[in-house]
Amino acid sequence: YPSEFLMQKITEDNQIPVHLHVSVSLQYVAGLKGNALVEFFHGNIAEVENEELRHLMWSSVLFYKTPTVEVMACVLLSTKAIYFLLDDSFIHADEHQSDFWNKENSDCENSSFHLSCCFVLKLNDLQSVNIGLFDQYFRITGHSADHIVTCLTRDSYNTHTFIQQLMAVLSLLARTPSPEPVDKDFYSEFGSKNTGKMENYELIHSSRVKFIYPNEEEIGDLAFLVAEKMDGLTNLQSLNILLYVLAFQVNHVEGSAQNTSSLQPKTLILTSSDLFLFDEDYISYPLPEFAKEPPKRDKYQLADGRRIRDLDRVLMGYQTYPQALTFVFDDVQNEDLMQNLTLDHFGE
């Protein structure tokens, strides 16, 4: 340990997405290669001497306690825990949740050190992993509200790779098996539950961590919600969701030093007749077992919706992934303009 293949893979994965800005401390981490990266992990992050770094991924993350603050993180998976190396701007992002983070090091703020928070979720505390629609994100759940984190990968490949690596690492854990039932009957004898199995889109791993995948009902609920937003103009049977993707809406900030643009996280949903942007709650649903009341906001909140027939043109940027698309719509004030003209000109 570590093998050359692992060193090469971790070095390749250690790249901050170009459209996201991070602090100086995380830029330093992103500049590390190969052996320097592994040494940095063991010297600064690892909690146990004999743990191995298995996977590295850059992703936006959300915490259950701060559901509106999305922060960039370097996610490190080892044989003992999942580490989230966070952008230090996160500490000041939400004053109401300041008690969530330990402020002991605040006296170092003015020194030459660049500090980062590191949030640790031990694999032994892991209870379930919820995979989002079309593998655009996944939520890791521990035993309390402090131990729920959503990784917004916005990329099915990154999600799939991380889940595979996590399953492999969990297989190494020695967990005590579930207690056997006292009276063994015919059904429990032949219906062994020790092996990994699919149960209602729920894979129970041999480490007893649940991997929960979305079922058809979620798409059905989403289609119903979209139809509702379309004022019932469409027959639900004929409504097909063609595309669901986590994206950013670009808002240009004028008057700043440089003509910068802020990125607002949105869920883009395309149907055969409309294009929708939703504000989605990626972390509160499905409700964790300890939740006493439903979340303050709905899972999907409509931010914008336009008809495809009003789409005038689509402008495509020339840069590589992530691609920028600009949708230009005809700004027709009255959607049923022709119908009204007909009534005006040809009587009742």
TrEMBL record:
Nischarin C-terminal PH domain boundaries: 241-347
Residue ranges occupied by any PLEKHM2 PH domain in the UniProt entry: 114-178
Organism phylogeny: Eukaryota, Metazoa, Chordata, Craniata, Vertebrata
One of the Pfam families matching this protein, by short name: PH_NISCH_C
Alphabetical UniProt keywords: Cytoplasm
Any one GO molecular function term: kinesin binding
One GO CC annotation: endosome membrane
Superkingdom: Eukaryota
Subcellular location: Cytoplasm
InterPro entries attached to this UniProt entry: PH_domain-containing_M2, PH_NISCH_C, PH_PLEKHM2
Protein name in UniProt: NISCH protein
TM ranges: none
UniProt-listed GO biological process terms: Golgi organization; lysosome localization; regulation of protein localization
